[in-house]
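The instructor's notes for this session suggest beginning with a concrete chain rather than abstract definitions. Hand out the sequence below and ask the class to guess, before any prediction is shown, which regions might be ordered.
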Amino acid sequence: MASDSLQYDAALGGSVQLPDEVDSERFNEERIIEIKTMLRNIASTDKQTKLMHQSLPLHMRRRAMTYNPKRLPRKFRVIHLSQFSKSGQPERKKRPSRKYRRKANVLLEEYERRKRTNVWLETHIWHAKRFHMLNKWGYKIPFTPTSKAYRACYRATSKHCLLQDVSYFGCIEIQGEELLLSKRLKQFCSEKVGLTIVAKAFLEGKRSGYVWIFERDKFPYKCIGKIRFLWRAGETDNRRTLWLFAHPVFYRKLVVELVNAFNLKDTYENDMEMDVGHKASKTMNNPGTIRIPKYVNDSLGVTILELKDTINYFRLTGPLSHSILSKALKVCEPSENVNQNNWYSEWFQQTDNKNIVDEQFKLWHATCKLTSSGELSPGIVFGLVIKDPRLNRPCKRTKAIPSVIMKPEPLPECNFLTACSPLWNTSIRDRIAKEMQSTHALNSKKNKECLVPGEYCSSDGSVQPIPIILMQNTGSQNGQFKRLGYGAGWDLIAPAGYGLPLWQTLIMWGAKPAGVKELDMQALETGVDLNRIPDTVLGKSEADIEYEKKWSKYFARPSNRRVNYKKIAIASPFRCPWSQLVSEWSVLKNSSFFVLRDQEVLSKVQMAINRRFNIQSAGLPSQCLIPISLTMKSRGNPGDNALICLPHRHDFRQNKQQKQVSDNSPVYIEELRKDPNQKERLLLRRHHLKLLKRLRCRRIREKKIRQRKNPGKLIRISKPNNQELVKQQLSKMRELWLPEVPETIRNQCSRECFGYVTQCSFSLTEANVAALGYVTADGLKKLFKICSKGTLKVLVRGTKSRCYRFASFKIQNE
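After discussion, reveal the predicted structure:
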């Protein structure tokens, strides 16, 4: 360069003169020393502070290197393993392969572990692959199919056959003298509701029935629930046996009530507390290992056995249910399978049992020619001994259709022999489960002996038969209320161990499987919903669960995304406050209420709705709720928990004018109101935030004071101890948003509320939006005064809408 340029370097503190060229040889020699030092540090494990996988370039690093040495280059793996062995970290085990996890013994251990929290049904494995499963009532039960099945399930109930596994219903066996049982059991039911447990129609055991159970001598209050019962047929002496099938929600309460009524004692000394669950983890496949709780009163001679989870209970609904059973169940002939070494050969040796099998064989073959179960006597019971259902399956799924008969033959007379069954015997039930052949062993024998698949082979004769009990369901008996015969079918009771084989056989013959969700569909279509009755144990439990779910979801949203129910005049959007509603309408300010089930009174109310009777002469108690079925007169779906209100006279005039011009708009729209608690909520929130900020500033000041006293020491701010303060603020805000106890239910809006809707949806039977609900007696009387002429109508309003629409209604009297 012509002249040297002076440059200033602040790090050196003066001017320096930079060279015009770089000596490459000298530069490389100095870099070689640095490269050797770097390579020596990488290869050495003694002095470096970083781990091997941390020393790699960024583009070669992987997150999995920390626990998987194979992610590193091969030449660095030994160093990586030596580093981790010195650190003492445990070796991460590889997840077992799917082949190992699917081994039979490993699967069995895993299933037993998962059964500890919720009891599995025998059909659980079949359902788990095809259904959404639900933890409910202490069971793992199928909720709904994974495929779209709502309309398909309805078609099955109306035209085909719907199959449901309701084995979670608990069975209670009562043994004792007939007179004593009749006297004590009368205290739990009433003849006003219908036929009781001790009615003459059921005592012979030829029919099963349903009955409403109340607490002892508390009718009509304190309703427990609706149960199914069956007396044992063919008992010669005065000692009788009775089975009660109860829902798992009130099963324990029913057991306690029965034990107290007969003054029974638990035979097991270590299990005297009945409120606590008696049984450990149980499997229906091994009923012999299940401890069956037993309660005895030696002086009265009464015994109660809890047979819960020891038998299978299937429900078939639809007109083709009888055809499917006639195809799927092959009854043993009287002289068949008597020389084999099984329970049937020993049981058949008795003369009475030979007559039983002969009568059942004749009757079943005669009834197989029928097209529907509705042609039989209501509630008839068949006790059958059938062949193993695994021997009677079609090669592919087949729809069982009844054969057309030109002249129906008369049925033989049903007697107590046709209802007898060895399934009542506990020792036979246990022996059947223990001597059951596995499906693998059965198929192995058939493969060796049977040349043509599906044909009969000699090994089939050695398979033990199975005793079952069939109980007929009548379906709708009131054609004016619902379609006649809708919901008819059969209930099938089978021994433990044969639940899955029997289930698969029924499916192969054309039954449509369904879950718990489809029970709501059936309830709406039949007009009877047993899960949402306000005064029962099940209804209260389900209402509380639903309220907690909706209440938590509502307050999980931010305040600007919540529906302000104060402004639209809705006092209780998530549940129906029946006690407060009844007390506001009745003269007696009492919180107790009951659902009216008196058949005679309900018939009078329906006649009054049809203008054939005076409602004042019906004798309606003021503390009762009347069940009704509603049908919307125009468009709109108000949804569950909708309000049932009394109309004004000008609402009828408005509706008439709208009909003339085909106007489907609402009859009346509620005016928006001011929220009286809005300012208070804003002030409360502002003061709360100020208080939290003040507490934080106080903690910061304390930290600064401690830092001055201890300079150089690390001081952390203390955690806030204001959990209780935040909880109180949250409860206050929720009370201002939505109080748990409303001020009024009757006058919450401009139309007087006198009832609530428990279930509402589009009914495929009615081809319209239908609903089930309950109204107060005094409110219904006032409706008669408003609607002095013409058809009675009520106004229905949803909880998220301000629109009122008319709906007609009928009394539920099924």
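Then share the key points. The chain has four domains: 25-87, 168-306, 311-442+457-525, 537-674+741-811. Residues 269-286 have pLDDT under 50 and may be disordered.
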